[in-house]
Amino acid sequence: MSTVMxxxxxxxxxxPATLPLEGAVRIExxxxxxxxxxxxxxxxxxxxxxxxxxxxxxxxxxxxxxxxYEEIDDFLSFINRMVRNLVQSQPVKET
Length: 95
Fold this sequence. Notes:
This protein has helices at about 40-55, 60-90, and strands at about 25-30, 35-40. With about 100 residues, the protein is α+β, with helices and mostly antiparallel strands. It has a domain at about 25-85. The protein has a two-stranded antiparallel sheet with strand order 1-2. The longest helix is centred in the C-terminal third of the chain and has 30 residues, at about 60-90.
């Protein structure tokens, strides 16, 4: 029997002011396992901030916003790893 190591849940300092309260995260199934991802509109915003950062630089507020999105991405990645590890640790049921 395998043991699943559970790490502490990362804490978010704050949410970006531009983060919509609804529709910010979508759920997809990959091999029957739910995967949490940022919505297309959030991904577009992050890409825009990254391009602006590369081309002309960000304001202090935009930098904080991008940092908050990075924290959310880390959080979702953690949740996805935990869900995947829990599913993989369960015995396969024959149907």
